[in-house]
Design brief:
The protein is an alpha/beta fold. 42% of the residues lie in helices and 17% in strands. It contains 11 helices and 10 strands. The two termini are 25 Å apart.
Length: 259
Amino acid sequence: MSNNNPIGLFDSGIGGTSIWKEIHQLLPNENTVYLADSKNAPYGKRTKQEIIQLCFKNIDFLLSQNCKMIVVACNTATTNAIKEIRDKYKLPIIGIEPAIKTAANKTETQTIGILATKGTLNSELFNRQVESFTNIKIIEQVGHGLVELIEDGEIESQEMTKLLTSYLEPMIKANIDYLVLGCSHYPYLVPAIKKIIPESIKIIDSGEAVARQTKSILEKNNLLNTSSKNSTQMFYTNSDAEVLKKILGFEKNVFEKNF
């Protein structure tokens, strides 16, 4: 495996670009290939076996691009399929999980909220994590419809505001002081969320931690890119590339591909 080979990332759509941005900021010399499986989004509505098979399909594509590492930039995919992925593929695999531990360790009201997909909240991995925090009240909320609106480019729509308000108001009333975003799509909603929740409630997502873990694993496996050439960032989607271009803020190296 060459150090100059790219890092591969995939998500059930464009949301995982929030993870890509953190990794690219920390590791600007690394080449990357990002895969947006928007045609099959959201994974949260799918069965565990469907999610596993979609992950295999995505990883096979990234391996065809000679990726040296895979970042599963999707909470639902990680919580439902990470074991099967690591059993099948013998290269470094990094997953992403809701940052419940961080919020639970910092909360002063002993009450935290988590906004995530149904697939994440119902997963065995997530529920094992929650069960370890017996002294903390965790308010779980499925973000019905949020991923679909983000995939449609409707982040600032009235429908988005209405949905977010209905999901967040019960958490505010319950006196949460930390809100955990349990889906890689949701960091794009932070500006909208901040208009609804009090300033005292802190928002936590996993992006920065995943970037640090990516760097650590690359270092451990002697896979950091040592080339002096400018890095290359490639993006593929099986849906409308315009939405992906808009969320990235640029058009270069963004392609539609049927997979």
